[in-house]
Fold this protein.
Amino acid sequence: MREVLVLDVDGTLTPPRGRMADAMAHCLRRLSGMRPVFLVTGSDIAKLRQQVPREVLDCMRGQFVCSGNELWAGDKLVYSMSHSFPDAVIDFAHELLAASSYPIRTGCHVEERTGTLNLSVVGRNADLAQRRAYLQHDRQSGERLAIARAIEARFPDYEAHCGGQISVDVAARGWNKGRVVAEIRMHFFGDNLCEGGNDRPFARALASDGPQHRVHAVSDWRETLAILDAAYPQELVRGEVA
Ligand SMILES: [Mg+2]
């Protein structure tokens, strides 16, 4: 059986929406020479390329973006599963965002991506401080989970998950990170594995696929780096696993 590494990005390999640290970039380039490495993120390819150096992306096997609804390998789009969201879903999303009492609104609140709808009360134009402030509010209020649950209650054919610090990702049921699971042993790293988190469907799909897979819940990229460095030490011979 082949082993592959599959890693979430925001909060797992990088600070949320931030650039990848040199130490992590170095680690991933090293690992890509030993095993197939894939990324899986709710972001689209443009946002991913802002965060991860090109030379790191180029040595990987591929990147599942838009919650697994697009796969890229280098500059090549391998597949793209688009979905046309009904007006009723989009209108209800706008209603829920407008109903929030959170006072800061920065713009870009509903973004359609391939196969997913990305919602944000504070808006995707928020800077880092505004994102952190919203996250604090969300932790106290549970607002994003409430929005996700409201969407699922109104539209049972859709599912919604919290992603990153400010987002709720909406998709047709089953169109989530869980799509990435195939007949390979995977080690998945994610920081959003809690109830309602957008890494959870992937973990659930791995668990139902069989006991051969491993899920690593991490709190930030430093923890990911520590686990990777410990599990795949420098001494391992390049190409040890074909
Ligand atoms: Mg994450």
Residues 235-242 have pLDDT under 50 and may be disordered. Helices lie at 22-32, 45-51, 54-58, 87-99, 128-141, 143-154, 200-209, 221-231.
